[in-house]
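Design a sequence for this backbone.
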């Protein structure tokens, strides 16, 4: 372990902190995590931990979700500029207008959204449970925000009438079908997994459409030896680490989320030293947003 990692470990214990890390983080950051996972797993961990401090190595909406679930804990995001551009493609006012346009529709927000948007939603979802969440609803129509591609995928799986906000992830938009076709020619025995934030023409080429946590599980299957991976590059580190001897081919080396890469070991240490930057949510917004997140956590996956 590096000197920096040793210092983080010692200070983490002193502060009674837990380090939660998303699958897209830099390898060295993944290596110091108490838990590394997808948005659903991280939210579950944030809800369950008895640590006093949560150091969130991910992007702002993830730390905010932890703050929504655990108001009695201090939530640190080691770089306050680590945002998610898709989460900022809709705000609470936009959603209120959309709700007026489709009265009676149930409102589902992807977890990649602000606390204000969650507070205006009936239920939240992640890429791991979006289909199950929508299936759990009885309403005849569903408003789905902000990811149009995840929304379209869920619509294709459930056959439900859905109104989609035109948001998207700029990183997953870089993943192109022609890149998959080319890789399939070179590696004909490889399976293809893609994230549901990808465009429909990319999703159409996949053997499985999975959250990042779902991809980790898929790669561990004994029948999978080679995998073409359509998501952010950071996941390749964990796939290789946990599956020595297997081959992983990223669909696009351009698929890098610059916000995820803002978190470094130096910033994690600094954050624990200074106990900053702290992510908080105004109490009235938090209480409403928590209803949508709690309702999601009750859906059986
Ligand atoms: P997962 O929940 O699948 O980890 O995805 C989070 C995300 O931001 C994908 O871009
Ligand atoms: Fe947001 Fe896309 Fe980055 Fe995920 S990969 S955090 S959706 S910008």
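Sequence:
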């Amino acid at each position: 372990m590096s000197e920096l990692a040793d210092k983080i470990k010692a200070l983490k214990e002193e502060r009674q902190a837990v380090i939660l890390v998303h699958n897209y983080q830099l390898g060295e950051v993944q290596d110091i995590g108490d838990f590394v996972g997808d948005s659903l797993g991280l939210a579950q961990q944030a809800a369950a931990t008895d640590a006093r401090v949560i150091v969130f190595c991910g992007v702002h909406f993830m730390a905010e979700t932890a703050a929504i679930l655990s108001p009695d804990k201090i939530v640190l995001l080691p770089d306050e500029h680590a945002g998610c551009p898709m989460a900022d493609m809709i705000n609470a006012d936009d959603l209120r207008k959309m709700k007026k346009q489709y009265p009676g529709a149930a409102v589902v927000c992807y977890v990649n959204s602000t606390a204000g948007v969650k507070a205006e939603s009936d239920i939240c979802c992640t890429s791991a449970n979006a289909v199950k969440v929508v299936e759990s609803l009885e309403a005849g129509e569903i408003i789905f925000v902000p990811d149009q591609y995840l929304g379209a995928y869920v619509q294709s799986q459930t056959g439900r009438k859905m109104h989609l906000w035109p948001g998207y992830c700029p990183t997953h938009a870089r993943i192109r079908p022609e890149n998959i076709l080319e890789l399939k020619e070179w590696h004909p025995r490889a399976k293809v997994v893609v994230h549901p934030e990808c465009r429909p023409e990319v999703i159409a080429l996949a053997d499985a459409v999975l959250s990042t946590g779902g991809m980790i599980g898929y790669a561990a299957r004994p029948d999978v030896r080679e995998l073409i991976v359509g998501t952010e590059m950071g996941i390749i580190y964990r796939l290789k680490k946990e599956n020595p001897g297997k081959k992983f081919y990223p669909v696009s080396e351009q698929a890098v989320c610059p916000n995820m890469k803002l978190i470094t070991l130096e910033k994690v240490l600094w954050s624990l030293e200074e106990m900053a930057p702290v992510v908080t949510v105004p109490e009235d917004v938090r209480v409403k947003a928590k209803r949508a997140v709690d309702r999601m956590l009750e859906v059986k996956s």
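The radius of gyration is 19 Å.
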